[in-house]
Prior knowledge:
Elements: E1 2-7, H1 19-26, E2 31-36, E3 49-50, E4 60-61, H2 63-74, E5 82-92, H3 95-102, E6 106-110, H4 119-125, E7 130-135, H5 145-156, E8 189-190, E9 193-194, H6 204-222
Parallel strand pairs: 1-2, 1-6, 5-6, 5-7
Antiparallel strand pairs: 3-4, 8-9
Helix pairs in contact: 3-5
Ligand JDH is lined by residues 56, 86-88, 90, 112-113, 115-116, 135-137, 139-144, 147.
EC number: 2.1.1.228
Binding site for S-adenosyl-L-methionine: 112, 136-141
Subunit structure: Homodimer.
Amino acid sequence: MRVDIVTIFPEFFSVLDLSLLGKARQSGLIEVTAHDLRDATHDRHRTVDDTPYGGGAGMVMKPEPWGEAIDGIVGDGASDALLVVPSPAGEPFTQQIARELAAEQHLVFACGRYEGIDQRVVDHYATRMRVRLISLGDYVLNGGEVAVMAMIEAAGRLVPGVVGNPESLVEESHEDGLLEYPSYTKPASWRGLDVPPVLLSGNHGAIAAWRHEQQIERTRRVRPELLGE
Ligand SMILES: CN1CCN(Cc2ccc(Cn3ccc4ccc(-c5n[nH]c(N)c5C#N)cc43)cc2)CC1
């Protein structure tokens, strides 16, 4: 998988050299490149924003630098890459979308700042490639970088070979539409709190049943809408 990120804060993504995704990059499973949007400007101040037409607070990101930066990644014609634009107006990011992103060969992320990116950037690239506006959640961030970091981590860990034990990807929250069951490890008793005895029983059928019941109970308590309730 190839991942290109366009941002005015490319150093924000240096953290991707660490941990699991760092290993995936070293092994060539995932190739991540952060591009500085200001490299696609040509004025002395490296300007990427301007005042909004129609008035209003804040600044809007100019279309020209985005066009030059994204063309520099996907060329000047049609592209099979998927352009992902984080936005409060996007579709909610879910595990299903993480799976869909993980199946892509080439992802291009456009990290906006200020009050967002000129709409014509999305409109233009929608004529040349698939474009998805995706929201991390129902709150307002200062830009798209945090959202892109979350999306890359959620999708990257689903790319075959990135996580050592694929089984660990199966019993996760949201993987089967339910929240995950509680986990325990040694010691069997800690500050007066004991591990549920069933987990020490060696009865794998009883353990699986208990874990599923815990998933249902936790989901009903915390996210009843996932059960259609
Ligand atoms: C006309 N007005 C109408 C009100 N808006 C409000 C507003 C205010 C700040 C920002 C900041 N910002 C810039 C780029 C960018 C990308 C993603 C996100 C983002 N926030 N929350 C998520 N889940 C996100 C994701 N993913 C935020 C971003 C965007 C919008 C401005 C324009």
